[in-house]
Amino acid sequence: MTFTAQILTLYPEMFPGPLGTSLAGRAMEEGKWACDTINPREFATDKHRSVDDTPAGGGAGMVLRADIMAAAVDHALEKQENAPILAMTPRGKPLTQARVREIASGPGVTIICGRFEGFDERLFDARDIEQVSIGDYVLSGGEMGALVLLDACIRLLPGVMGASSSGDDESFEHGTLEYPQYTRPQKWEGRIIPEVLRSGDHAKIDAWRKQRAEEDTRLRRPDLWERHRDGPDQSPSGAQEKDKDKE
Ligand code: ADE
Questions:
Q1: Could you tell me how far CA 130 lies from the centroid of its own chain?
Q2: Which of 53, 122, 178, 242 has its CA 20 to 30 A from that of 164?
Q3: Which tens digit of pLDDT belongs to each residue from 200-217?
Q4: Do residues 62 and 118 touch, judged by C-beta distance below 8 A?
Q5: Is residue 108 lining ligand 1, measured as CB closer than 6 Å?
Q6: Which domains, and CATH codes, for the chain?
Q7: What is the residue with the minimal CA distance to atom 6 of ligand 1?
Q8: From ligand 1's centre to the CA of 141, what distance in Å?
Q9: Would you call the peptide bond into 12 cis, given omega within 30 degrees of 0 as the criterion?
Q10: 3-class DSSP state of 127
Q11: Ligand 1 neighbour 90 (Cβ under 6 A)
């Protein structure tokens, strides 16, 4: 099955962009995912093909029109009716690994990229659209956010990462950051790889990794740490935890 991304963007030349190379590029060549762009300008009704207008109530910038954007969304729905529709906006719900996993397990996704001061809010009243943010900072448009979301999904598609790295052990999959990694040389600038990692004792290695993952999460991400301690149901990746340490 091909995971199909439909991107509504005023800058279709930005896709697949970096997703045409490396892991995602290879997966695309192999038909594991596909990317179609739809330019909302195609749905404009005036001779200037305008998609935006000044904000009601005044203020800086321009707002994407609900009527034009809805026409583009309806076109996307005709082409792919069972995929979730996301709008990239700093006003959205923060993207999580759990949501990424859900999207990656479906047939595809339609992503609306914002520009300017955002969307006419009536678009979200009139259509079933999930507003998503990739972080608490403001980008010049939703395209980079769409690329981020797609990258996170594509690597999880069957056969993309290979059997060795199912992604089960990485950051967020157990509600914590991942443990730190080391590789050769064994000694570098006087620094030595932790002894336990060279012991060959897998129970000890697992315990050390769990402890470091938890310590780093507590220090760097107190928000994640609180949720992790509150219970496995709160895991931001949606992953089930088997033997949670409740000390
Ligand atoms: N568009 C502008 N800023 C954004 C953000 N932080 N997340 C998603 N889309 C955006």
A1: 13
A2: 242
A3: 999 999 999 999 999 999
A4: no
A5: no
A6: 3-154 (3.40.1280.10), 168-241 (1.10.1270.20)
A7: 90
A8: 6
A9: no
A10: coil
A11: yes
The residues with which 3 forms a beta bridge, in sequence order, are 33
- Taking only the tens place, the pLDDT of each residue in 74-89 is 999 999 999 999 999 9
- Global pTM? 0.92
Ligand 1 site, residue 139, Cβ cutoff 6 A: yes
Query: Two tokens at 41?
Result: 């300008």
Extract the residue ranges of the chain whose pLDDT is less than 50: 164, 239-247
From the list 187, 191, 165, 161, the residue with the least C-alpha distance to 178 is 165
Q: N- to C-terminal Cα distance for the chain?
A: 44
Tokens (6 digits) for 52? 């935006």
- How many Cβ atoms sit within 10 Å of the Cβ of residue 128? 9
**Atom of ligand 1 at shortest distance to CA of 132?**
8
Which residues touch 82 (CB under 8 Å, ≥6 apart)? 106, 107
The CB of 118 under 6 Å from ligand 1? The reply is no
